[in-house]
Amino acid sequence: MDDQTRLEVEAAAFRGLVAHLRRRTDVQNIDLMNLSGFCRNCLSKWLMAAAKERGVDMDYDQAREEVYGMPYSEWKANYQAPASGEQLAAFKAGVDLHAFKDH
Fold it and tell me: For 41-62, b where at least 16 C-beta lie within 10 A, e where not — what string?
């Protein structure tokens, strides 16, 4: 596979992942973090970092809106449920496996 095709395939896979996560508003970020070590916010941080590496000015709120498909505050108000004690305990226990430690 040539470099341009690889870039296009990877970009399409990322768009597919983001579209899937936008549809699955029932899946909480804490559950994603506990199972995989990353969540929508992590994707936003990777997107922001990639933009900055290419000289594109993108702040965290803009990156989150790209991933969530709406302002984060709107997504949080409509879809984010309070974390249970069990979820929080699992989150803390797995922190060494998280993509970002600052959640």
Answer: bbbbbbbbeebeeeeeebeeee
